Amino acid sequence: MLLPVSQVASLVNALNLTWLDKVYLNAIPNEDLDNTDLTVMLLQETDSSPAYLANNTFKGLAMGVEIQIFYKVDLDDDFNPLETEIALMKSFKQAGWLIVSSQHHTTDPDTNQITKTIYVTKNEMI
Q: At the top level of its lineage, which domain of life is listed (predicted)?
């Protein structure tokens, strides 16, 4: 079984999102921290705990992933982040992930990028 962040990365990569330039797992490399010319997604694991408890054991895992989107500073005038986020969340739902939380948009104080954080979870049998 792949790590939760790897499962989410595989799904995101399979979607071929034209608005997304890079996907990072666990951390953004130092050399890319200040790059505001790209829209990037950072995936971090939030949960990997036992699930489907029965007969004094567990038969699955509850997996959680935090998805952070950092939009490039110069977005196209016709680009609508909210529409892309809704489509992304629908894709996760279709793939069996539950949208736990979709946080409000914020502005990164260091880079001035609009950011969005979404939390997803999925229980999987082992």
A: Bacteria
